[in-house]
Amino acid sequence: MEKYPEEFLIFSRVKDAREKRAELHTPAENMKMSRVFLVLGFIMIMALYTDAETQAMQYEDCCFSFFTGSIPAEKILNVKKTGSHCPQQGFIVTTPKFSSGLCVREISVQGQQES
After folding, report:
1. CA distance linking residue 95 with residue 101, whole number of Å
2. 3-class DSSP state of 103
3. If you average pLDDT over residues 12-40, what whole number do you get?
């Protein structure tokens, strides 16, 4: 029996394993698997996107910095309380100058304070 170098034997085993694997999967099966992975990848991307969008919408009505000055009552167009899911509670006050709203911690109406 002829003795082969160890590298040749390892290469031979790898080659045999590749040939067996190639016999198990036909090109049609490989295409089906590619489609499956493509669909799964698409589903994962959509799930991540919708989760991120939902989290962004949760904080839409929240305040993270607050206006500390006073706002004249005649300038206030609308007052909206922040959502209960917000990390800090406050009010969003809309004025002609700040149509997107100013965040305030409390509102003083005719000398009474609400918080």
Report:
1. 7
2. strand
3. 71
| 89 phi and psi angles, rounded to 5 deg | -85, 150
Residue 83 exposure: Cα atoms within 13 Å on the Cβ side? 8
Helix, coil or strand: residue 61? coil
Confidence at residue 12, expressed as pLDDT on a 0 to 100 scale: 62
pTM value surpassing 0.70? no
Residue type, 109: V
Closest CA to 79 of 107, 59, 57: 107
81 HSE (CA, 13 A, CB side) = 6
Backbone dihedral angles phi then psi of residue 12, each to the nearest 5 degrees: -65, -40
Helices (H), 1-115: 6-24, 27-58
**Count of CB atoms situated within 10 Å of the CB of 90:** 22
